[in-house]
Amino acid sequence: MTETTFIYCLIDPRTQQVRYVGKSNNPRSRLLSHTRNAINGKTKNPHLLHWLLDLHNLDVPPQILILDSVPVRDWPKYERAWIASLKDALGERLTNLHPGGMGGDTMSGKRHRPETIEKMRKVALKNRENRARAGASRQNKTPWSKGKTMSKEFCENVSAGRMGIAPWNKGVSTPQHVREKISVAVKHTFSGPEYRRSLSERTRDQWANMTDDERKRMTSGARRPKSAEARRNMSIAQSKRWEGRTMPQEHREAIARTQTGKKKPSQSRAMKEYYKDPAARAKTGNASREMWQDPEIRRKIIAARTGKKRGPYKKKGGGANAHS
Question: For residues 38 and 40, what is the distance between their CA atoms, to the nearest angstrom?
Fold first, then answer.
């Protein structure tokens, strides 16, 4: 089986212009390393460095697009062809320093002069000081897009520019060890009470600022009927999430405080109206029978009912007498 690699390009999200063409075995990781190297001053290409820092200062990440999947042994030829096609034929303003095929090695077989090394050392020290000052100033900096509403024309232009562009990871499954790392990171993040509190406050603020139409769209999407398999998978995932865990006392107290003084809505009238429909009764009965067929769910229901007193029940004629 022939090993392959990827020819990719970096796109300016502000203008949708291609600014850089490169090669990588892992384009997503390469995109992150481009930004990281620019911030740390490790990017040797000055044009690419200034463009990436300009985007970074605006809190706008560059976009990446996979141009081609090529054999590893022939990637220099394909990279040169793509650079020539985009630069010469289409007139794109690329930041590439060379025609391609060098794999980022611009000093192969060369050595810097001592005076050049000294200049580079001074520039590196100055860049380090500039990064420290920029980092201190960015701590309280507000993102350029915060609080702004993009015009309909702008959104349509962005949509048209992205039309037909397939994501680089479309059809590529995430390896199991990567999923496990992501799972551990997410669990660690949500284990902090401060993060959960801030997430809850942010959600409440977003819901309070929504219009009635936006709320209706969200609730209609949440109420979309799900298949029996989807419901079963959701139940299993929820059970695994809480397996071996108990709700902290501070959460119980917070929930109790939010419910204090609230009148629980009566659903008996709504349920009576709902069950007047024979189709609704049949749907509920089929769902209950299908759920009862699952051994795991049946075991949990039986375990939950074990030891609990059933009744007393109200008879239709009145009175709260237990079953005789």
Answer: 5
**8 Å CB contact between 26 and 4:** no
Q: Record the pTM.
A: 0.35
> How does DSSP assign 130-195, residue by residue?
HHHHHHHHHTTPPPTTTT----HHHHHHHHHHHTT---TTTTPPPPHHHHHHHHHHHHHHHT-HHH
Q: Are 52 and 12 in contact (CB under 8 A)?
A: no
Q: Write the single-letter amino acid at 265.
A: P
**How far apart, in whole angstroms, are the C-alpha atoms of residue 270 and residue 316?**
20
**Please, which residues have CB within 8 angstroms of residue 30's CB and are 6 or more apart in sequence?**
8, 22, 24, 64
Q: Does domain 4-105+113-138 have CATH number 3.40.1440.10?
A: yes
Domain layout of the chain by residue ranges: 4-105+113-138, 176-218
Spatial strand order in the sheet of 17-24 = 17-24, 4-12, 63-71
12 contacts 19 by C-beta, under 8 angstroms: yes
pLDDT in tens, 49-84: 889 998 988 888 899 998 888 888 888 888 888 888
* Nearest C-alpha neighbor of 62 from the set 22, 25, 16, 98: 16
Separation CA 284–CA 287 (nearest Å):
5
